[in-house]
Amino acid sequence: MHIHVLHHVHLPIKHGIVQYLDNCSHTVSHTYLCEDHKLPDSSTIDLLIIMGGIMSANNEDKHPWLIAEKTFIKSVIDAGKAVFGICLGSQLIACALGAKVTKNPDAEFGWHSITPSDAVKETFLADVFDKEMTFFHSHGETFDIPTGATRLASSKACKNQGFIYDNRVVAIQFHPEITPELAKLFTDHLDSTWTNSPFCKVSVDTSIEQQLFRQSALVIEQILGKIELNALR
Question: What angle do CA 32, 37, 43 make, to 5 degrees?
Answer without folding.
Answer: 90
